[in-house]
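Example record used in the benchmark description.
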Amino acid sequence: MSDLYARHRAVLPDWLALYYDDPLEITHGEGRYVWDADGRRYLDFFGGILTTMTAHALPEVTKAVSEQVGRIIHSSTLYLNRPMVELAERVAQLSGIPDARVFFTTSGTEANDTALLLATTYRRSNTVLAMRNSYHGRSFSAVGVTGNRGWSPTSLSPLQTLYVHGGVRTRGPFAHLGDDEFIAACVDDLKDLLGHTRAPAALIAEPVQGVGGFTSPPDGLYAAFREVLREHGVLWIADEVQTGWGRTGDHFWGWQAHGRSGPPDMLTFAKGIGNGMSIGGVVARADIMNCLDANSISTFGGTQITMAAGLANLTYLLEHDLQGNARRVGGLLIERLRSVAAQLPGVREVRGRGLMIGVELVEPGTDEADPRAAATVLEAARDGGLLIGKGGGHHTSALRVAPPLSLTVAEAEEGAAILERALRSAW
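Model output (structure tokens):
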């Protein structure tokens, strides 16, 4: 056990998860690579849980942060803040939500917390619909709408949460159906559920479930849900903490794969926009955002230094068409991994879109999750110089692949080759 690991265990919670049998200390990074305390280099295919969105040590972000540090770091939302207004203007315009207002937070958890506060206040209901296998954060209310037992430490909640079918396409009671029939069955389930309860405040849903193993429904499911929800006055919150900013390649926001019935009433974001700086937020229609009848501020949401980073990062992302890069390079990476999976009986599915890819593992010859194999592959990938993530829920086990959106074709091939060797070592 390293000295740092021993010190970690002595002062931090037992439930604070660490990857690897011999936990890794990352000391610095550049581009798509990071280095550990021993000087070993790794290709980063997880980006601090989808947070290093553009690149490690991106010069444009580093310059913006350094210049802002030399002026002022923080003043709180009690004072006018030019970088916060400028980033809010850009996010509101990009969101697709009409007459949008933006509130900045420090994390995705806090963003979802805020969205739930707004929805329940606006609708005067504490009932919330959520998706099975979902994850929305670690706060008391966010845990209360998380449909993933592995990340839900309590059943207590300020909300009454009802869970809906549809977030997982290839498992569950409707998995055998075609896409259109799958959507129709999930809509029928939603209609039936609404017939047995008081009208809920909102549905909160990740367009692609992150912690759940990068699962998603057929395109159009949430559009069909939206039509039903609108009849009952129920709001739709799109949790874009992991799917936002072009990561899925085909769309800038995950909700746009379900946009036939219009944009969500609210969307939440975090992670990638700050490229490692603590930025989260909520975008909502003005009537929803302005429904609170008490004062509120955010001490650390929207600080000058985080907003400077967000502006520089967003500008880089748009000017370099990283969404298009995610679509092109991600498509190549998915096909490469699918060709490997076809040769391995322990890989049930390679799924995802853009640079948001899940590899679900099972015990060969069965449909049962294989967490041992997932742990083995995670370790073997690290040994080979590649960092990836894990996920899954309800007896599933998946590897999560989500590199920075500036990933090159050569780096994608390098990572795929390492991951192929790691997968072959598991069985």
